[in-house]
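Hi R.,

Here's the chain you asked about this morning:
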Amino acid sequence: MFRRTFWFTTGVAAGVWATTKVNRKLKQLTPESLAATAANKALETGQRLKDRAVGFALDVRDNMAQREAELEDALGIRESPELPAPRRYAAIENNRSNPKYIENPTYSNNRNEDH
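And here is the predicted structure, written out as tokens:
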């Protein structure tokens, strides 16, 4: 009697385990789950590529600066030249003291006025 109970319980447990395993697998194979998994994988891959590209760009920048320093030392132009001061332009005022100001009474400065 105990043998039959043991094997019956073992069979029930194996059936529950197998059913649970199959149901989990079926849930993983639904279209929504497959789409979410694919999207996550794509985001992870994109992040890995971005990290590698940033690392590569930083390596290139460091090597470029190092090579520029080597060339400047070899050519003897290590010091940077002085840059000229920026030019400043005076703003032209549009007033009556300016000789270029022309008073035109027929022209309206109001842009909101109907024409």
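One quick note: The two ends are 108 Å apart (CA to CA).

Cheers,
M.
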